[in-house]
Q: What sequence folds into this?
């Protein structure tokens, strides 16, 4: 499968429309547009990278949005049989630290100090303006 990270050398189908893929250097969830529109909120889709007929959620952080919104028992196999409840807990922790816009919009806990750091990080552009506005509203 062609992914934003290159050609996959491993693909695990979670269910029809949702797969975990790996390349020699990176990986993550690949969700078909149809699956994503049915199973993920608009806020979650906004955190994915649109890639043709898919949304890509990279393995370091963005995966957490999929695990949080659409947990599936077969995901446990991806993480050495870590219980699904623990996967969701870990995903919420990742979201709290790396996806403050998503967390605020979905009324989830977020790390305000980390959000303020992101709001001032040049590499966080173009999300900075939206985050600054949301932080002002939640002060």
A:
């Amino acid at each position: 499968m062609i992914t934003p990270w290159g050609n996959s050398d491993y693909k695990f189908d979670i269910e029809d429309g949702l797969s975990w893929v790996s390349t020699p250097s990176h990986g993550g969830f690949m969700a078909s547009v149809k699956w994503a529109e049915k199973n993920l909120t608009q806020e979650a889709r906004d955190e994915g990278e649109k890639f043709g007929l898919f949304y890509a959620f990279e393995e370091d952080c963005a995966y957490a949005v999929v695990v949080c919104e659409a947990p599936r028992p077969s995901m446990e196999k991806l993480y050495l049989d870590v219980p699904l409840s623990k996967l969701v807990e870990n995903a919420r922790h990742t979201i709290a630290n790396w996806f403050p816009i998503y967390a605020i919009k979905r009324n989830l806990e977020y790390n305000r100090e980390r959000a303020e750091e992101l709001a001032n990080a040049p590499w966080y552009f173009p999300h900075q303006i939206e985050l600054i506005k949301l932080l002002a509203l939640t002060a």
Remarks:
- The chain has one domain: 2-137.
- The chain has a mean pLDDT of 96.
